[in-house]
Write a structure and sequence with these properties.
By secondary structure, the chain is of the alpha+beta class. It has 2 domains: about 5-170, Beta-Lactamase; about 180-345, Alpha-Beta Plaits (2-Layer Sandwich), CATH 3.30.70. It is about 45% helix and about 20% strand. It is built from 10 helices and 15 strands. It has helices at about 10-15, 25-40, 65-75, 80-85, 140-170, 180-200, 210-220, 220-240, 260-280, 315-335, and strands at about 5, 45-50, 60-65, 90-95, 115-120, 125-130, 205-210, 245-250, 250-255, 280-285, 290, 295-300, 305-310, 310, 340. The strands form 4 sheets. Strands 1-3-2-6-5-4 form a 6-stranded antiparallel β-sheet, sandwiched between helices. Strand 8 (about 245-250) and strand 9 form a beta hairpin. Helix 2 packs antiparallel against helix 5 (about 140-170). The longest helix is centred in the middle third of the chain and has 32 residues, at about 140-170. It is elongated and about 80 Å long. It starts with a strand and ends in an 8-residue tail after the last strand.
Amino acid sequence: MRIHTLRGAKLEESVLGASCSRARPFVRVLEEGLEAAALGVRASAGAIFIGEGADVLLCVAAFGPEAKHVLEHGQPFNRALAKRALARLLPLVVSGSDPDPQFRSGSSRRTKHAVIGRLHDGDQNLGLLQLINPKGRFSEHEAQLIAGLSRYITTSLIQTMSLRKQELLAAHDPLTGLRNIRELNSELTRAVTSARRAERDMALMFVDVDHLKKVNSKLGHAAGSEALKRTGRALDEAAAGIGSVFRFGGDEFVVVQRHASKESARALADHLRSHVAASTAGPMRPDGVLPKITVSVGVATLSGLRRRNGRPRRDLRARLMMTADRALFRAKAAGRNRVVLATGRDDRL
């Protein structure tokens, strides 16, 4: 038996961000749950649909002669049956007199018998488990078996999605929603390794919010938090498709540009600075107005680090961070709201 499942971006859209390698536990739940159900009732085809209502159900796993078509179509072929099944506590057993639940119109195949079990967490619908065409009719015992397997699949899905949520929370800054310093360390290691292997340049930028303490003292800490949220959002917008933005801590952010030259890094840093200034001011809830926020930016490139005997020094990740931070210090000392590109003098012990 071969079970087909959604992968990558499509799976990410349907199950709370479970994408790429992080989706593997979820895929395993789908495959094992559907296989156990199929073997338990000797079904010849089946599918799992995820969603809270009949109109938003999405097929995430299927097996049988038209499994790929079911996945591509996404929605159940018979929404009326799906709606009935989602409204029941016990699985819905239907005969061939009902429209086919898993074969498209015009197919040479027909549904003789089907059982559709509701996946739910209390009153909240999570989806449906659908099995069709056993060797005989679905017995009452097999309907009860499907009810038990639906609970097993539901529990496994909830646990897997809960773990994924915890991973997302652990990887993101709770105030701005940007990835945090732990994620920055991983990304920077990958970026430096990739750049050296491909013999190309990359850049790292330290971004500091200017005069955040004045905002806190004059308008309150809620305004300071709002300033950080708006700054993070503006940086993320400006760097979209070019760089990755991280919350470093306090009033500092870091941007990693994987493909860069000194000129393109300077251009991105200027764009970050101007976009923050242009998009952060405005009314706050429940009242008050946030003034224009500006940032200072220190930029370091891999090619700008000092070399010893014609070779780059070790600890490139730490040196990029340190060099960009020193360039940032010079930007603040020069009056803030500006970009400073690091030089070899900033790369020192």
